[in-house]
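#help-structures
NK: newbie question, is this the right format to request a structure? protein is DUF4371 domain-containing protein
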Amino acid sequence: MKRYYQPVPKRNRESVGGIIPEPRIKFTPGIGDEVGATTGAINRARHHHKGFNSQRRSVSPALASDCSESGNPFGVCLRTSLDCARYLLRQGIPFYHLDPSYTWDKGHFLEMVDWYKGFDEKVRRAFDEMDPDRRSELASRGFQKDLVKACAEEVIQVILEDIGDSRFSLLIDDTHDITSKEHMGIILRFVDMRGKVIERFLGLERVKDTTPTTIKGNLVGFLARHGLSISRIRGQGYHGQSNMRGEFNNVQRQIRDEYPYASYVHCFACQLEQILVSVSSSSLAISYFFYNVPIIVNATNAPCMT
């Protein structure tokens, strides 16, 4: 925004009786497009400010500074840990075992770091020269979680840059973690710059209960934290909880009442599942088969405790 005073010619002043017009304010064209944009300068500055304030608690700033310093032992160790974490995340391999009986194995992450040190002399020397306290910090589970969080933030940022200022659709499903806590999985569907339909998993959101008001509030807060507005939704689909899919007093109805362009598409997989359940319940043999399948699968996947 630029403030300036436009001078009035002398003849105009005399003609209007010496009245000087008030200064006018000129708005720079396009400044409204920057405000609220995912890739705008204001949003980028906010992310940089947030990372600067939390640099002692987050590993993200270290990925940009320490990793680039090849002569710094901590930077070499951090880069090695990051490479191992990226490989495990890409392959979907857990970092450590939840079963305490695996005392002979330190976990996939630490075992891979030791393997890395075995064939790279520079990496082994960097770990040996580093302070013992910092070495133990790199081996802690808290640091491993920070690595996963930093990688997730980088992936989410790439997804948001691909979305840009375009509209998107929501695909939401409910899930449970190992402690049986309710979570809401959020997937975005959008069209990229090449005109291709893209689906990206954005994250999980913890929900205290599955009431429509709570789910909508968590959804709005989740999108706002990532710089997305619920007004940009052009489609919504749900799977799982019945109060998400119902016709009255539910999430999709509340969103459509405020934003009519957010059209609702029923999950046809749910309809097929309901048909299969209804058909299988009419046959005792089929019902008994589907009853025993999850028992066999759980017994096969369960770790041997003997």
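mod (FA): yep, format's fine, and the tokens are attached above. Residues 2-28 form one domain.
NK: thank you!
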